[in-house]
């Protein structure tokens, strides 16, 4: 079954809380897009709200609607290795690192050590789910680009747009061919597509091998976000 994941690009905590409130009860997982202003020409929460984010990382405060969702953080950061563990501390069920970021491999290695350490530490009290790790590729990439990160990711996120960090862009058709190529070479690896996903291309992406669709403006730009999610589910099936 294809999972549809609503994605938010919040300017601040208040907007994050408001947007997530529109999909409580209709989505299990949500993606929070995080842009540092260096990797892409945009800047989002938690930048500018570091004190509050630190409270969340320390466990003194929770993410909005923390009990309703599994949180996936898409880190569009120039140096993810410097900050990735903060998002794990904040309660991430999954973290996505972009392959073309400067510190991509170092960030993935930090996550691998974290996950390995948790498994060993908790072996006596039962299995503890590790933080899922995603590797994001632009639509101009190729399946061969994954070889450099072998063993360091759980799933691949194919970007449906080239100009990352903004929502509401036109879907880049090259993403379909990339999904097909990855699925052919790595059939067991889950693939999700983020960027430009809508009812117009959802079914085509699923047929190409996608198991998750990350949807931003097609959901939150609609009058009724919950109804928009239902429409997408109908289109997929």
Characterise the protein shown here.
- This protein has 237 residues and is an alpha/beta fold.
- It has an 8-stranded parallel barrel with strand order 1-2-3-4-5-6-7-8, surrounded by 5 helices.
- Helix content is 32%, strand content 19%.
- It has 8 helices and 8 strands; from the N terminus they run βαβαβαβαββαβαβαα.
- It has helices at residues 13-21, 50-58, 84-89, 104-121, 174-185, 202-208, 217-220, 225-236, and strands at 3-8, 29-35, 70-76, 92-98, 132-137, 155-159, 191-194, 212-215.
Helix and strand topology:
Elements: E1 3-8, H1 13-21, E2 29-35, H2 50-58, E3 70-76, H3 84-89, E4 92-98, H4 104-121, E5 132-137, E6 155-159, H5 174-185, E7 191-194, H6 202-208, E8 212-215, H7 217-220, H8 225-236
Parallel strand pairs: 1-2, 1-8, 2-3, 3-4, 4-5, 5-6, 6-7, 7-8
Run of helices and strands:
EHEHEHEHEEHEHEHH
Class from helix and strand fractions: alpha/beta
First-to-last CA distance: 9 Å
Can you tell me the overall shape? globular
Short description:
The protein has 237 residues and is α/β, with parallel strands linked by helices.
List keywords for this structure.
single chain; 237 residues; alpha/beta; 8-stranded parallel barrel; 8 helices; 32% helix; globular
């Amino acid at each position: 079954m294809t999972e549809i994941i609503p994605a938010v690009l919040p300017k601040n905590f208040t907007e994050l809380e408001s947007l997530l409130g529109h999909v409580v009860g209709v989505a299990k997982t949500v993606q929070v897009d995080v842009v540092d202003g260096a990797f892409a020409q945009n800047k989002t929460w938690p930048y500018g709200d570091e004190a509050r984010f630190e409270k969340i990382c320390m466990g003194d405060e929770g993410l909005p609607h923390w009990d309703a969702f599994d949180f996936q953080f898409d880190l569009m950061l120039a140096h993810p290795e410097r900050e990735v563990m903060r998002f794990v501390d904040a309660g991430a069920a999954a973290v996505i690192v972009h392959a073309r970021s400067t510190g991509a491999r170092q960030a993935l290695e930090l996550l691998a050590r974290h996950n390995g350490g948790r498994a060993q530490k908790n072996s006596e009290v039962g299995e503890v789910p590790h933080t899922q790790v995603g590797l994001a590729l632009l639509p101009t990439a190729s399946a061969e680009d994954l070889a450099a990160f072998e063993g360091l990711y759980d799933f691949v996120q194919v970007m449906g747009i080239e100009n990352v960090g903004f929502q509401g862009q036109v879907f880049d058709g090259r993403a379909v061919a990339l999904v097909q190529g990855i699925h052919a070479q790595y059939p067991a690896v889950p693939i999700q597509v983020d960027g430009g996903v809508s009812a117009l291309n959802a079914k085509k992406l699923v047929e190409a091998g996608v198991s998750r669709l990350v949807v931003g403006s097609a959901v939150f730009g609609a009058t009724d976000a919950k109804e928009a999610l239902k429409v997408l589910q109908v289109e997929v099936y």
